Inverse folding.
């Protein structure tokens, strides 16, 4: 497991060469690593291994970096450990920003969004809440993320969704509806990021 921890940190440096472990929140890093391996001894945040990760809070604290590194690390894990390919949480991970998803609808319509709801993939939605709303396709308006998140909920036992956002759960209810916020409780582990941006200084 020590060697895997080294690979885990290396994944961060592959995504962001300036990654500084000293500035990282060790409880979060340990718990995300524990989530992959389902190991309780370093699961400091007591994450539920069956749920995705909902990373929320201030700007510039590494939310997107963590999920990008998780995706990078997953690719190596399934190569090194054949048995891990059977874990639905480690299926192929697609990454799209919320704005990209809304623009995909605006360009190609609802059928183009359905592929991101498939239980054949796991999905990272980056920057939830920053997408244009509603999106329009030939005059037909739709709250794309609300639609997609409902579909992702239906497949929550055979695929996982991960999210980065600045939205707390109450804000999710305001933007996407109370029923989506309620479903989030079944879909996600909530991890809050606090403090000042690490991008400056």
């Amino acid at each position: 497991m020590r060697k895997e921890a080294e690979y885990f940190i290396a994944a961060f440096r592959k995504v962001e060469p300036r990654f500084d472990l000293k500035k990282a929140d060790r409880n979060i890093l340990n718990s995300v690593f524990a989530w992959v391996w389902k190991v309780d001894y370093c699961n400091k945040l007591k994450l539920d291994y069956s749920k995705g990760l909902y990373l929320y809070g201030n700007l510039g604290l590494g939310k997107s970096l963590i999920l990008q590194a998780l995706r990078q690390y997953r690719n190596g894990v399934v190569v090194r450990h054949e048995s891990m390919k059977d874990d639905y949480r480690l299926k192929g991970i697609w990454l799209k920003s919320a704005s990209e998803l809304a623009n995909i609808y605006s360009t190609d319509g609802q059928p183009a969004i359905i592929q991101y709801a498939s239980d054949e993939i796991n999905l990272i939605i980056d920057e939830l809440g920053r997408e244009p709303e509603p999106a329009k396709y030939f005059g037909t308006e739709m709250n794309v993320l609300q639609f997609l998140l409902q579909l992702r909920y239906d497949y929550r036992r055979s695929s996982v969704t991960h999210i980065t956002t600045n939205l707390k759960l109450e804000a999710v209810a305001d933007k996407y509806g109370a029923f989506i916020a309620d479903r989030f409780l079944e879909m996600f582990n909530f991890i809050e990021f606090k403090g000042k941006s690490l991008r400056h200084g």
